[in-house]
Amino acid sequence: MTTPSYTPTPTAVLDTAEFDELDAILDDLRTRYDETPQWEFCEGFMAAVICSRRPIAPAEYLPVLLATPAEGEPADPEGGSFASEAQRERFLALWQQRWNEVATALDAEVDSLEDERCYHPEVMDIRGAVAEMSPEERARFAAEELPAFAQVWALGFMFAVESWPDEWTPPRDKDAAKWLDGALQAVVAMTEDDSAPPEVSPLSEDGAPSTSIARLNAFGEAIWAVYDLRELWKTMGPKVETVRVEATPGRNELCHCGSGKKYKKCHGVG
Questions:
Q1: What is the pTM of this model?
Q2: Which residues pair with 262 in a beta bridge?
Q3: Degrees (nearest 5) of the Cα angle 174, 179, 181?
Q4: What are phi and psi of 190, to 5 degrees?
């Protein structure tokens, strides 16, 4: 995909109106491709791609996330598509702005989740929102399985990990491999349901209880896990491709070309 005409500064922070813009674009994409994810899923996906061992370009990862055609490719009738070039440019601009914000946060040296510089995923508390509705409104969701707090974010993160398995292969170093496994397990834990009784509101001090304290603690562990993954792959760098050298036959062995001659009389001459 081409580079957006708008170039955000690394410290620019998306405001509520801009997140609403992203949601509106995704909603519109969903009218043409009903599997277009919600922003929370995109948020988790983005974090994983930023943490990936190998830098992955937008032209490679956005078609995986949104099922939109790569640059120069025709639209897939069964895939997603932007309504116009202007819409695509705006999405890419907002996406890059949030990308810069997340990358800056993950590269900051923080020791508390309360630090303003810390990575704070843009997640929703669906169960809390429903709990604050009127009884009549809540009845509409009675038969639905509402996602737990940050569950969709974690699913987006792991979707990116599973889409590029080679970039998440455990390193040979045992300590590094253990570090990787522990961090990924902390994120995987957030993909599971929160089946414990709701005790607190994760996003509001006076909101309706919707999340267990254990879930809230697990979310904090998942955030630190993302920091660990970012640090791990930055420290190790991209994988170095193994150079495979074909074995050379002995001079008196039959040549590998199948001529029936000894190697020294065939391809070993010279």
A1: 0.82
A2: 254
A3: 95
A4: -80, -10
